[in-house]
Amino acid sequence: MASYDPRVNTNSTTQNPPPPPPPPESAPSDMTAPTDGAADVVAATTTPNNTNDEQTDSWKLKFCTVCASNNNRSMEAHLRLATAPSAFPVISFGTGSLVRLPGPSITQPNVYSFNTTSYNQMYEELEEKDARLYRHNGILNMLDRNRNLKWGPERFQDWIPGQPRLEHISKGDKGAQGTEGGVVDVIITCEERCWDAVVDDLMNKGNQLNRPVHVFNVDIKDNHEEALVGGRAILDLANRLNESAMAQRNTHGSAGWENGSGAARLSFDESVPEILAEWQEKHPNLPALWTLAWL
Amino acid sequence: MTQSPEQVVDQVAQLDAARKLVLGDAALYPQIVNGILPIVGANARLELRRWGAEFLAETLASPILATSQKQQLAPTVLSSIQETLLLPETDNAVLASLIQTCASMYPLIFRHTVNHPGDNKTWETMSAVKQEILRKMDSFPCSVKICCIKFLQRVVQVQTPGLIADPRVRPPTQIPAWSPDAQYFETYNMQRPDQNETSLAVVPRNHALLSLPQLEAESSGLLDRLLDVLQEETCNPLIVNATLNCLAPLIRTRQSIANKIIQSIMDFFPTKHVRPPFTPTVRVGVKSMERTARALLFNVMKKNPGHPLMGKMQHYIERLMQSRLETAEDSSRKRGPPAEPTDGLDQTKRARLDAVAPPPLKIPPLPAGPTSYDQLFTLTQDIGLSSFDVKQLPPDIVVKIAIPLLSQVNPALLTQAVDAIRSRYETITKEQNHKRQQLHQAATAAAADDDDDYEPDYEPEDIGDNGPGEAAAIAQEEAELEPDLVSLGPFVLPQPPPLSEEEASEVGRSAVSRVFGMIDAVDAASSSSSTQTKPQQLGFARLAGSTFDREAWVVLLTRLATRAPAGLEIDDKVKAGSAGVKRHSTISDSIRETLYRYILEDFRARLKIGITWLNEEWYNDRVRMKAANQERTDADDEPTVTLYYDTWVLRLLDGFLPYLDSKDIKILVRFLSEIPEVTIAIIQRVAGLARDPERITLTVQALMYLVMFRPPAREMCLNALEDVYQTYEESRPAAGKVLAKWRPQALPAPAEQASTNDSSNPTQPAPSTEAQAST
């Protein structure tokens, strides 16, 4: 763990500077333009955390990706969202009871517990067990990707929404910037079973925060190729959603509300079914599902 | 209060830093919140108001801030919110956050008011804010409206009696406000605010500000308003989903209104609320509402498996799924019937749209002579068609063809055809009755001629003995006619040819392999649905094999192996045993063999099956021994019973022992403790594990467990342990400890220890004979 933390940190610092100016600058708004310009000034003059400030300053939707084991599909999507040109705040979870990775045969999966096993640990253990096999079936590559993204798999059912996640930022988890409050605006699951589990679990959690959250499912088969395709599609969905949410945020006040036209007239939340329908037409092979739930 | 953009940005950066601070240390919240309120108040710039509203929503919902502290903050925050709301605030983001804050705050203020009946100002402010929200709710844009829905749900939850968790809390109605107990009650609740969830149930009946009937009436009205969206003519999926998703806590924690809520969900069918055209957006909406409603009811059913509305809920979910199919079909139907030719030339293919009476059906006459069922029901004259054997088609294809065909059959034609068959049938029966009567008459007439030739004890009713030729002819004729009779008597299936022994065991084996297949199938099914349903625990009410789950199949299989052929084998043995011929393997042996292999394939997971099996074997051995004892006739005839348990327990143990590693102590201990009988042979094998230095601890721990928790096997285990102690030097530290406690005399005295290091201990007691078996 200690050996891998520094690497992650260096990675994140090399990764962070490139993001091009976020969309709001191009949006025709007299409110945000000076703000962003000023943010650059602040960023240049204040603390070493300047890159973070720049990122959090431009408001974005916060995402959460979920699959069964928090290893393949949700982590591919996590990677996509966290490293996109307009990097999104993102956290990720699994809904299974245990982390299950393929083993030597179908009846002998490698099983780990959530929240307490790091990706690095799994990587080293499997490499020792049978490096050839696990390199050949892509498990090691996957774990290598994951350990550069965050510390270890987390279980959705153990997540306490609203619990601060400062330690994930200090650990250097990718996409952690902006998720320090422990809440998200959008949850995207990768399998209907997981969607069911998430919706059910949110009901069980009692909706304590009174905060709305859009829960999507994008059905992705659990293999590396499909995860790649699905991750790209999820990023597409995220961009569309974020664009709409930003548009709403920029047309503030009732005056702006009346003046908007078309989709902008709809509030972001209201336009979600439309956005999803449009997205679905572009990705007919990834059946999608949505609901509005509560954190 | 005008600020330049730079100042605002500076301030936001400072505020962000402050937020990081409280996220790291919740104790700082009161200080920071009080410091921030003036900066982000009603008259601040938009960015600051947005930031502030979001921060307040986060603060009052935060799971790291104690409820008591939130309660102290709430009144101050509330007045600031009221100011902002009354401006009026117009920014959606600020509004949404503020209403979220109110939803989190409502129970806090409510509790505060319960505890401070004198603070009428705070409660009045809260009520004013509540009225403001409720008044404007319908005019707010959707993104704010959904937050209002959640606020509504919170108010209903608070203003409906909940459960009093702690029985020591006296019902508040019994405590007069002036009594010292009221004081106690107040401090009690103050000290342990989480003891009882905030609800109408914690309000004293004579509270100065909170009038129970009024609050309850209000909440009932608000509940109706909340559920109204499910009944509206056209529905917005966003609003409906927001409502459905917040109902679960109400159903779970508020008994008095749960059924009403469930009822109104069950009256809700998304497909009824949408009008064509079914755009992709509408379809996304309908699907989401269906799935959300389903998820909510599943949640209720899972939480409360014995719910009185269980059946209805299941039925509703089925209907919901069906109605979804219909909409799906709707969309495919919209393509229209392409079968209609547009050129109008192809008359034969043109669909008959007008209701013309079908041409009368041509009924071919039945061929002469006896009629078969085939002929009776054949109306077509097409030879190819009537000679076609439908049995050649697989049943599923027949079903696929038959059902659409049936739906397209012209009813008039069908009636004609049925009538034709009926008249044929009646004609045949009439003819046959007539024929039979004639035969009967002929027979009796023939019999009447020579009565005395009849044997007195043999009285066939109608067939005379004297005319064998004639009678035989009649019998033959009757036999010929018999199968044609439509009014047949009971049909008796002919006995199948007897199976040879090989065939029988082959069939038996295939049956067994199917049962194994069931175990795997149930395995797969249960693992896929494990996230959804938890098997109900039946406890003592459980009957072996009553639930048709994996367990049941395992029990079935083990009993098949042990009990089913029990009696049969003994006979076998008696016959074959004397000749000294080894019996060829019986079915039960092959089941045992398969079971053995099945368990070893994955013994860590399937050990439970093994234990079940061995218990059945042991029990069966007992039963058979008892039976054999009862059966024996003379005292000296020792009954011989093959004991399967001993054989198989050792085989199984031998099977997996080599694969046990040092971490498998739980598996070994479980096996040793749950098998019905521990024998010396078993213990020896366990002790043999100590040969491997890595597994010495495993051996010692397993033996120690048996020593401690299986008294009948204690002596045996101690002997084994002593043996291990003597033989394997590496075991001494661990085994020594156990022996020191249970059999100190086996250890060499500390002084001698060095000298007697390698020689065997002379004080070692002989293995006790009583401890041979333990059950």
TrEMBL record, chain A:
Transmembrane segments: none annotated. Its EC number is 3.1.3.16. The keyword Hydrolase applies. Component of the cleavage and polyadenylation factor (CPF) complex. InterPro entries: RNA_pol_II_suA. One of its GO terms (biological process) is mRNA 3'-end processing. It catalyses: O-phospho-L-threonyl-[protein] + H2O = L-threonyl-[protein] + phosphate; O-phospho-L-seryl-[protein] + H2O = L-seryl-[protein] + phosphate. The keyword Hydrolase applies. This is RNA polymerase II subunit A C-terminal domain phosphatase SSU72. Residues 1-38 are annotated as: Disordered. Pfam families: Ssu72 (PF04722). Keywords: Hydrolase, mRNA processing, Nucleus, Protein phosphatase. One of its GO terms (cellular component) is mRNA cleavage and polyadenylation specificity factor complex. Component of the cleavage and polyadenylation factor (CPF) complex, which plays a key role in polyadenylation-dependent pre-mRNA 3'-end formation and cooperates with cleavage factors including the CFIA complex and NAB4/CFIB. SSU72 is required for 3'-end formation of snoRNAs. Residues 16-26 have a biased composition (Pro residues). GO terms for molecular function: RNA polymerase II CTD heptapeptide repeat phosphatase activity. It is an enzyme of class 3 (hydrolase). Belongs to the SSU72 phosphatase family. It is found in: Nucleus.
UniProtKB/TrEMBL annotation, chain B:
It comes from the Eukaryota. PANTHER family: SYMPLEKIN, SYMPLEKIN-RELATED. It is found in: Nucleus. Residues 753-775 have a biased composition (Polar residues). Keywords: mRNA processing, Nucleus. This is Symplekin/Pta1 N-terminal domain-containing protein. It comes from Penicillium diatomitis. Residues 91-334 form the Symplekin/Pta1 N-terminal domain.
